[in-house]
Design goal:
Elements lengths: L1 H28 L6 H12 L16 H30 L9
Helix pairs in contact: 1-2, 1-3
């Protein structure tokens, strides 16, 4: 069970990192931020809703920040639901004997 949970957790983390990368590449492509490093940093901070505020998007792109933050919140919620669905399916498929019955 431990390996299954680790496998699922790593896959979910990789999916979140991929989404952060897509946002970052868009910011970099549109020249919203000065370089790729800034784009990835801003995207990561915004996706996880830390919102340090040390980097901001240009005025014409500013509404994308909250959209990315909302996307991050929703995707983390979906990941949590998926994680618990996997645990539930595993526990239903592999019931443990009740220790009180032994």
């Amino acid at each position: 069970m431990t390996w299954l949970l680790l496998w699922v957790a790593w896959r979910l983390i990789l999916l979140h990192l991929a989404e952060i990368a897509v946002w970052a590449l868009f910011y970099w492509w549109q020249k919203c931020l000065p370089d790729a490093e800034s784009s990835f940093y801003f995207s990561g901070v915004t996706y996880v809703t830390l919102g340090y505020g040390d980097l901001v998007l240009p005025k014409e792109w500013r509404l994308l920040g909250p959209v990315e933050g909302l996307t991050g919140i929703l995707m983390c919620g979906l990941s949590t639901g998926f994680f618990f669905a996997v645990i539930s399916k595993f526990l239903v498929a592999n019931p443990q004997p009740n220790r009180a019955d032994s």
